[in-house]
Amino acid sequence: MAILETLYQELISFLGISNLLELFRTGNYSSLLTLNGILGVISPVIPLLLLIEVVRALVYKRFKIEDYKIPFLIFVLNRFISRFISIAAIAFCIGLFEKIAPFQVSFTWYWFIYGYVVWEFAHFVYHYLGHKVRIFWCLHSTHHAPTHMNLSVTYAHFFLEAPYADVIRTSICILAGVKPPMLFLIMFIDGTWGSFIHVGENIMKDGRMGFLSRIILTPSYHRVHHAKNPLYMDTNFCNLLNIWDKVFGTFQPEQKEIKIAYGITREMDPGNLWDVYLGELYCLWKDIRKAPGIGNKLLYIVMPPGWSHTGDHKTASVVKKASLAEAAAP
């Protein structure tokens, strides 16, 4: 019975319906007038969309278990080994930096916009480093390994990526004066949207979303981010507001003539949990082991993926430059 209770609680947690169940149990609907009550109602949206996505795939005979297997296994694995690490990391950063922040903003609509712009910058920094620093890419690559886009991909993360991301994002926001209550609301909104932009074509065939694509990062932009096509590599690092990609020159719209190829560029088995989860760390270890001298060994850790001590670099920028040159050649 204990096992069944545990499985039941895990299912409730995954679906995000615990607040709704409590609402129906007590009959106290006044909680819907509070922020926590509203957030509790919104929480099940992404899991519900995932279920709809799977059902539609089944109905139209497009469902392939391999498209969902690895993200599901990663979700289960991470539930056992990283449940509290990210929460502890956020609490540590708030306690460390809140008292030395040069100023703190109030919880008003205009400061909320400021807080969100700061959060988006912090997210850009974490995400950019996740693609440009080899050791961080080892943590982030698990999320890019799936070869098909669907809502289950949002659960495919190496267990240390969330703490690393939250340390960077929380530290920047707290130092910039964003108070914890506002930060937690922004995290919830951003996390919900960050899940939604992984929506597959079974739910949203064209993810451009019309005029909204001018101001926000749509599913189409995020599909580009997950592509391994040379033109698309290392682009669209933002999550909701695409302002910082435009500022730093990493913004890339989806091109109709370029079909998106999902996944990562190294040869791998996307159906193998351990290759998806630990493959990049193993490749890094092999490069470090064969590199001559301590300097080169350290450079493999901090340089971009594809960097080589031999000078034969295959980084995203090198691959993209070569591809563009080839396309421009007569």
UniProtKB/TrEMBL annotation:
GO biological-process terms attached to the record: lipid biosynthetic process; membrane lipid metabolic process
Predominant location: membrane
GO CC, any one term: endomembrane system
Record Pfam families: FA_hydroxylase
Key word Membrane present: yes
Family annotation (InterPro entries): Fatty_acid_hydroxylase (IPR006694), Sterol_desaturase/TMEM195 (IPR051689)
Segments forming a coiled coil: none
Membrane topology: Multi-pass membrane protein
Domain Fatty acid hydroxylase per the UniProt entry, residue ranges: 113-250
Transmembrane segments: 38-59, 80-97, 109-129
Name assigned to this protein: Fatty acid hydroxylase
